What we know:
Layout: E1 5-11, E2 14-19, H1 30-43, E3 51-56, H2 67-73, H3 78-96, E4 102-106, E5 109-111, H4 113-119, E6 123-127, E7 131-133, H5 147-154, H6 156-165, E8 168-170, H7 171-176, E9 182-184, H8 189-202, H9 205-218, H10 225-240, H11 242-252
Parallel strand pairs: 2-3, 3-4, 4-6, 5-7, 6-9
Antiparallel strand pairs: 1-2, 7-8
Helix pairs in contact: 1-3, 4-5, 5-6
Amino acid sequence: MTTTLDIRRPSPHVAEVYLNRPEVRNAFNDGVIAELTAAFAAFAHDAGLRAVVLGGHGKAFCAGADLAWMRAMADYDWERNRADAQALADMLWTVYTCPVPVVGRIHGDCYAGGVGLAAVCDVLVAADGVHFCLSEARLGLLPATIGPYVIRALGERASQRYVTTAERFDAATAKALGFVHEVVAADALDAKVGEVVAALVANGPAAVRACKRLVHDLAGRPIDDALRADTARRIADIRASAEGREGVQAFLHKREPSWRV
C-alpha cells in the first residue's frame, strides 16, 4: 500500500489498484497523480501481468480534484498551473497506454477528473446508482486534460452536451451512450468485475496486449493501403509467434493452451 493507493496482487496475473482516500471521496491531488503514474509505469514492465482492476475504497470511485489541492492551485502562477496540469495529463496517458487491459470498477460518484480516470480504462463496470458528472464548467473551468479520453469514450455528441451543461447522468445513461459496458446491482459489482478479469486472463497474454494496441492504433484511421498492410503484418506476426502457434494447435487438438494450465 502507498500513501494514497491500496495496491494488491490477488494472483500473479492480476493487479488491483484502489484509490484509498475515502475521507475525501477519493478526490485526487498531486500525490495521487504521482502514485498512479508510478504504479502503472511499473505495470507496463510486468511481463506476467494480464489485467488490472482500478477502483476506489469508501463511498465513491472518485469525486475529482481535492478541494485543498484546488485552494493551493488558486495561488499558482501560469507556469505552475501548466506543470500541474501536465502531471495529470501524463498520469492519464500512463494508465491509457498500460499494455494490459484496465478494468474500471465504478461505484458511488464519478465526477470531473474521476470521469477522465474512468475514460482511460478499457472496460467499465458500474454499479446501479452511480452518477457521472463533468462538472468543471460549474467552477469556470474546463475538462481539458481529460478531454481527449472522455470524448473518445463518451462520443463527440454526448460530450458536447455534458461538458458544456455539467449535468449529472446516471449509469444507465452512460451505458446507453457506450461509455459504460456493464451496469449491475451494487452487491454484484465485484462478481461482474471478476467475470471480466477471468475472461481476460483466459486469453493469450500476448494476444490481449496486441488486441488492446490494435484498437488504440486503428481507431479513427482511414482504411487505406497503409492500414491494410499494417493489419496484414500484425496478424502474420502473431500467427508466427510461439503463442499464436500454441493457441491454434490447442484449438485443433481440443486441449487447453499452455497459458491456461
